[in-house]
Amino acid sequence: MAKSEVKLLGAWPSPFVMRARIALNIKAVEYEFLQETLEPKSQLLLQSNPVYKKIPVLIHADKPICESLVIVQYIDDVWTSGPSILPSDPYDRAIHRFWAAYLDDKFFPTLRGILAAQGEEAIKAVLEQLAEGLALLEEAFGKCSKGKAFFGGDGIGFLDIAFGCFLGWLRATEKMSGVTLLDGAKTPGLVKWADRFCADGAVKGVMPEPEKLLEFSKVLVAKMRGAPPK
Fold it and tell me: What's the predicted TM-score (pTM) here?
């Protein structure tokens, strides 16, 4: 398929954009990556996603698909020749979707909250919530993986993508706070899983370095607080 038939509107720091990129890589789909900036939003983005006006947007044969998890499922449905991303068993699919929703509704808002937290007590409270979330995900990994390398079994699957896209920001948070969140003593399964996930060929080229994310976070914090980044 010609690269021009598949376009992805996104930005390198976005974990949600990374979901689409990993899924496309797993399926060996060539695509054109169109970088968006914080401001202004491109006319193509506004036209392609008039409801939410946000990235990522996958454009396939001039048809836009929005929302990261919807995009991942679409990629799995359309490019069937590559490895399956969603589990074949209906119950397993439901469980993976449940935890993916938890990540978006609960875990990531907490992770993002570290940027807004001011003062030691506020930061400590966020870190405790993150630790609680990771304990839940450690348990989920044990059940979903069934003793294999990934949530999806032998290879990266839907829940691996849904969670793995946050690892760069999780590492950046560790550097920012000086606290180890993925702890070999508390979350041994997730620690080994994270190493395998980041080393995978579908992920290595799109996972941003924590140091770059830390620099970008200064821009975000300054934007939130209405001050120039230091």
Answer: 0.93
